[in-house]
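Researcher: Re-running this chain for the archive, since the previous output was lost when a drive failed. Same request as before.
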Amino acid sequence: MQTFSIRDLRARSGDLSHEAEQGRLSLVTRHGQPLFVSVPFTEELLQTGVHTALAIRLFQEGTLTPGRAARLARMSLAEFLETVSAQGIAVVDYAPAELTEELACLEPERD
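Model: Regenerated structure tokens:
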């Protein structure tokens, strides 16, 4: 997520527009403190609403945990994970070695 200060906006408004055109969120700050988030106006935003679209994007970027994203989207965790899954977004992101370890735990023990 690109960060812009209020002062940057005067000189770099084109950069902010470009980020939105690319479908990327941007954070605008004042005196180093978050002021607002620029959310691209997309079909997803129209269909799901700003809370859900923002939650999905921040979850997808790894900025929010599933639980926090669900709260932002005003959904239960199960509803949020189902919504994200339906959009083809992975709800679990394991490194290959980690996944192998997890799958090994599911295998029944052999005598």
